[in-house]
Design a protein that fits this description.
The chain is an alpha/beta fold and 342 residues long. The protein folds into two domains: 219 residues, inorganic pyrophosphatase (n-terminal core) (Alpha-Beta Complex); 96 residues, Diaminopimelate Epimerase, Chain A, domain 1, CATH 3.10.310.40. The chain contains 15 helices and ten strands. A five-stranded parallel β-sheet has the order 2-1-3-4-5, sandwiched between helices. Strands 6-7-8-10-9 form a five-stranded mixed β-sheet, sandwiched between helices. Helix 2 packs parallel to helix 5, helix 2 runs antiparallel to helix 6 and helix 14 crosses helix 15. The two termini are 36 Å apart.
Length: 342
Amino acid sequence: MLTDKEVNFLREELETAKNPLYFYDTDPDGLCSFLLLYRVFKEGKGILIKGAPTLDDRFLRKVEEYQPDKIVVLDKHMIEQSFVNKAKRPVFWIDHHDLVDLENVHYFNPKKRDPDIYMPTSRMAYQISNDPEDLWMATVGCLADYHMPNFIDAFIEQYPHLLKEKTDLPTALYKRPIGVLVRVFYFLLKGPTNEVRKSINILTRIKDPDEIMKQTTPQGKFLWKRFQQINEKYKEIYKDATKKVTSSKLLLYKYDTQRWSFTVDLANELACRYPKKVIIIARRKEDEMRCSLRAKFTINKALARALEGIEGRGGGHPEACGAGIKIKDWDRFLENFKRELK
């Protein structure tokens, strides 16, 4: 959590910003963090960082294009120092990944005080926005990042048709209506850029989750229809992935599709439904395998050791990692990883 001093400082900076530029990660935690702040302060522009692991010099053109007075970075695990230096604007970075040492950045990360804490960026964004009407959106961001927020009882009281009682995360995400809403936010970030932008623009104006879940407004109907179209594609791939379940501790599923990536979504759901297994979902893109790894126990250290001597990269949270492995080293990486799991 942010301290009261940090919350007050960030509120003042955002309240006085004339044209802030938000950069945020391409998942519901990042998206909800942006929406929570934008919907309260109602200034600036949001840029979804899609297909880039770090905020680097490639994004300086956006700074030149929009000429912001302040830059806010949400839920990104890395910013290049050169970006900060060349942007020449105050940078406010709110994140919850492993700590990074950068100069000339206002850096807010709860791991500074507690290295073992897990606190999604959307939870901190809700501390700043503090708008009761956006309780549902903060809940979506937290649950999507596999965190049960401390305000869940208030959510249940306000939206019992989405979650009628406090439960564990897998049940909430895959057996309750709130889980469908979480998936809506995941899937609206997929597909052609113009459709993603339109969906996000509509989300800035959605006041109640039932606009989407019950299609009570034209905007909600549009978002629900788009979600259904993407969800049909996901269900086909998920059904195929479940056929790979064996007695092995490792559940590996590889697929090859050019337009639709469901790597993270498959990994998250399969990890919840098969909690005793280590999940690797791998999608080939050009000359490498893009992977999401999940388990209900620590695997990031095993991944780090398996990458030794391998042309590739990887890392993340203890139980949820991402990796990119060159095709030529893929088989050797798998051998290394299997060995580390024993």
